[in-house]
Write a structure and sequence with these properties.
D-Maltodextrin-Binding Protein, domain 2; 273 residues; alpha/beta; 5-stranded mixed beta sheet; Alpha-Beta Plaits
Length: 273
């Protein structure tokens, strides 16, 4: 199975993809748009994308790309995010003066940098990419903050593990395919969809009452601006299913109150880490 990810080999997306499909061949892409293009053009069988982090919130770009492409969500799962301080082999914590990583990763390790004021946090485009750079430069005073997978992949040495501020740090990932290739789950219990309402009083309430009337529980609701149409929004919702047939009823009722409705996927909710 060929799976596209955004980021360098050894990234958390790489780790998540291998957790879902250990024998997969991974295609790293520099940009998220390239990931979706690889799926739609058939260069890969599927893609693994982060959609939400329990501390940093939603990956908003991926919501927009889900709506812009003919893809759907096949499954979801959670990955525990563990940040590690990684150096070149032979260095030590005492020698480190700079630590590179993605800004979100650095923000999740603030306490470490407060406790080690001699180490400067430096933003970089990718967690695994910072380890790749580190091992190429072979600089003993520079470190990276990334996953154990990245350290293993590039030959870095973990100087300190688990430096994140909050251990309850999880990222939710989607496995996406072209809509025609998604394998339907026989027992889905969760749905992701996008909808837009007219700009008039009560329109959003009317749409949400569809879910309430079906006694479905909305677990997430996110709004995103519509490009080129100021002050108009698309709403992204995740909701739970008690009965799989409920999804069809909701999908049929929403258009009465919405100017656009698109289901993004029916799947089983992630249950473990």
């Amino acid at each position: 199975m060929r799976i596209a990810i955004q980021g360098e080999p050894g990234s958390f997306s790489h780790e998540a993809a291998l957790k879902a499909h250990p024998q997969a061949t991974i295609l790293p892409c520099a940009l998220s748009a390239e990931v979706f293009a690889a799926v739609c053009e058939g260069a890969v069988d599927a893609a693994v994308i982060p959609i939400e982090n329990s501390l940093a919130g939603s990956v908003l770009e991926h919501y927009d790309l889900l709506l812009a492409h003919d893809v759907a969500v096949e499954s979801e799962w959670l990955l525990r995010i563990r940040h590690n301080l990684i150096g070149v082999p032979g260095t030590s914590l005492e020698r480190i003066r700079q630590a590179y990583s993605h800004p979100v990763a650095l923000a999740q390790c603030r306490r470490f940098f407060v406790e080690h004021p001699e180490i400067e946090a430096v933003a970089y485009y990718d967690t695994a990419g910072s380890v790749k750079q580190l091992t190429e430069l072979r600089e003993t005073s520079v470190a990276a903050v990334a996953s154990a997978q990245a350290a293993s992949h590039y030959g870095g040495e973990i100087l300190l593990s688990g430096i994140e501020d909050n251990p309850e740090n999880y990222t939710r990932f989607f496995l996406i395919r072209t809509r025609s290739q998604v394998a339907a789950d026989a027992h889905p219990d969760k749905v992701s969809l996008a909808f837009a309402v007219e700009n008039r009083p009560g329109s959003l309430v009317e749409a949400l009452q569809v879910f309430a009337g079906m006694r479905t529980n909305i677990t997430r609701l996110e709004s995103r601006p519509v490009p080129g149409r100021p002050w108009e929004y698309v709403f992204y919702a995740d909701y739970q299913l008690a009965q799989p047939a409920t999804a069809d009823v909701v999908l049929n009722m929403l258009p009465k109150h919405c100017s656009m409705v698109r289901e993004l996927g029916r799947y089983r909710a992630a249950t473990g880490v």
